Amino acid sequence: MNIKYNFFILPIIYIGQLSAIELEKIIVEESFINSVVSTVDEELQINNKTLSEKLFNSVSINQIDNSTDANLISIRGNNFRATDYYEDGIPLYKTSNGFVDLSMYNDSSVVIDVNLGGTQGLYAPSAVGGEIVLNSKELKNGINGYIDTSLSTHDMYFNTLLSNKTDKYYFKLMLSGVNQNTFTLSDDFSYTPIQNSDKRVNSDKGQINGYLKMGYKIDNNSDIEFKVSHLKSDFGLPINVYDEPSNPFSQTADYKRVDNKQLTNYWFYYDYQKEDLKFTFRIYYDEYEDIYNYYKSPEFTNLLYPESTYYDDRLGSIASLQYNYSNKNSGTVTLSFDKNRHKQIIDSDPVIKKYEMKEISLAYIHNYKYSDNLTTTAALKYKMQNLTKAFNSNSQSTNYKNNRAVDAQLTLNYVYDDQQSYYLSVAQKNRFASLRELYPFFPWEIANSRVKPEKSRNIEVGTQLSLLTDTIVKLSTYYNKISDMIVYDSNTYKNIEETTIKGFEFNLYNYSIKNNHIKLSYAYTNAKDKNGIKTLHIPTSKFNLSDKLFLTSNINFLVNFLYVSSINDSYGSSIKTLSSYSLLDMQLEYSPSKDFLFKIGVKNLLDENWEYRYAQPSKGRNFFVSLKYTYWIYINLTSET
Description:
mainly beta; Maltoporin, Chain A; disordered N terminus
């Protein structure tokens, strides 16, 4: 018997364009409706590496303030805790504060889908803050990978992926890192006694993360996968630039720092599909740790307060079963469980503070196809928050009453023809308080068991039109009424009566001009409480215009303009109004061959002095150069007797 080995080395530019395979495809529910859910177009991104950067130009998404300097977003003016995040069907880890730090995610091998809330969620009803869904790009047989690096005047970045797939198994190995010693402010920034140069004080950051993901095809109907990942980071939290304390307990400017931040994930996947039956199972365990310190000076030698170490862990599982009853009816039932624990250790304090929360939910989604033009989806979810253990002033465990809620959503989708489609969504969703909101930690340690779930009622209508040649228009308008909104007040969290969020969004994609891809987006958001006071950190208007010009077969030019109107922020007991700003970014792309992609460009070309947080000026003009090399090695094993 002679064995013949055939090797084909075929360089490619984008792994996401490779043909589909069944093994890597994670099946949870049918694809989102195109007119409701949008996919982040990385072709129109200018050197954006982290998940927060890739979402920044979306007019429906706003980056907001956070005391821990995490990258948080608000969708349509909703609470940053109101958005859910998933990767291949597993919810991303949320800290005890109830958020996902989007700066931690910089994997280029995933597709980013944004559900603003107008359609059912991945497992249950959706509205309020919608969902960010990450799906792994599909692999092709053979050895695949890329090396992606970027060097700018602010930081250095790298991301590399190696994968191999056969008909029976696959693996993916990813490693990524970023290093920022500091960043430069705009030349228009007026120096202060604390910020007395253009190099931002206390703005260093170092992060490295990676994962190994493996899959095995058991038979034609089922496969299993496993993923382990680890992230480690340390960084300074840029201080208030004005000669005032940003920490209410300090009499001078404080220098805050996260000296160690680690997140380790262990995820397991099982998928089964046969004829009209689909079953998926996910189980996940996460460990999180960070050390958050206050220092007396920028030398970071003397602590202002005793060192605090935070330990969190999360254990959860999701089981989902979908069955097609007929050509017109299908249903999905999902059962999920999630347990979060938080532990805090403070030097010189003998008492270890512990907090715990469990959540369980049962959801059902029913799809009904009335005709080829009209479909409807009804979704219902029952969920319970079990508060079993909490630290309080006398260090005793205390039992609290469980919180219960029912979420629901009804969507109608009508396709008039291949040029017009319309949708209507009506939803009710409850947001349970996070551990931080239930049991405020340092420095108060006051149990807050009576905070009620935040309830939202939402209605949205929208359309997708293609009435002009090579032009697509998406338009939606929405109204959201929130009762019992959870807010921070007087050293604790409480419910307030009512907040309304209403607005509309417009997106236009045009390909009619030769060698041009143009995208224009605008969003108007009116978010106010019952007294007419504008919600903090949310701009009324946001406008984005991008144009990709194809100069030759291997040279492209990309320009992006972003305008954000003024916002309000709080400082102490006063409200500060931050100025509107405009950012202009440009990038030149050159592909000398199919396996190389070279980029050079500038962000914030006009060197705008801007901020989305009071007394926290953002990066000035930033030049960058980037290189990506992508490869594919196909190994064909054939035998001859």
